[in-house]
Design a protein that fits this description.
The protein is built from four helices and two strands. The protein is mainly alpha-helical.
Length: about 80
């Protein structure tokens, strides 16, 4: 369990849902016609991307609308439905 905890801590970046994140989510919802939760997910990914240096951030999602919006915003997207 310690190894799992260690891996999770190194693999994920937590983005708090504060005022700037929510404002960005509203902007993404309006711009791309996203549902609320998808807009929050996209906003978090975009803001996390600015905090990551030297690493490629990849959005993992099987939601077509979210993936299209993320691609339009310049994110790399990986759809698990496209892999057998």
């Amino acid at each position: 369990m310690a190894a799992l905890d260690d891996e999770l801590e190194r693999s994920f970046d937590v983005v708090e849902l504060d005022e700037p994140v929510m404002a960005h989510a509203v902007a993404m919802a309006r711009k791309h016609g996203l549902r609320g939760a998808d807009a929050v997910q996209l906003a978090c990914a975009l803001l996390a991307r600015t905090d990551v240096t030297g690493l490629q951030l990849v959005l993992l999602s099987s939601d077509g609308e979210l993936n299209a919006a993320a691609t339009a915003e310049g994110l790399q997207v990986e759809n698990p439905d496209r892999h057998p």
